[in-house]
Write a structure and sequence with these properties.
Length: 184
Amino acid sequence: MARLREQYNKKVRKDLAKELGYSNLMEAPTLSKIVINVGAGAALTEAEAMEDIIDIVTKISGQKPVVNKARKAVSAFKVREGMEIGVSVTLRGNRMWEFFDKLVNVVFPRTKDFRGLEVSSFDGAGNYSIGIEDHTVFPEIDANNIKKVRSLEVTIVTTAKDDKSGKALLDKFGFPFKKDVDRS
């Protein structure tokens, strides 16, 4: 079992239920899934860009991504219906917990000039989205063998009903939010 999942089941769930005023442990929010998404606008001009992106996401997530196709044509972006425009992967279960552990304890500390994550990136329903500009911060990627630095989006989907509960959940795992600093 994943390290953070055990920590959640043994300690975090009880703490959250008490902190948020829930009478039942099952009401406490938990991680539902993590979605990794990479847009492939470069695939319109570069032939091997899509294979490169698929390889990167496969190494980072440990599972093969789904190729997303355009639903409708957008002439301003030179996109036609059915064109491959990105890849995404949804992680659940132990893979999700392992990726979350790696994200918090390895990726964020390796990020250059990292000053914490904005609390404002919650969506109102307790889910949190992060944009990572450089995929080389992941330990699976060898920075010497990359063709181009790619950015990706990670969305952490929780069972929380609101942002306060979602933030409380992520805080329990040491999620690196920016600290509120009074600048007066």
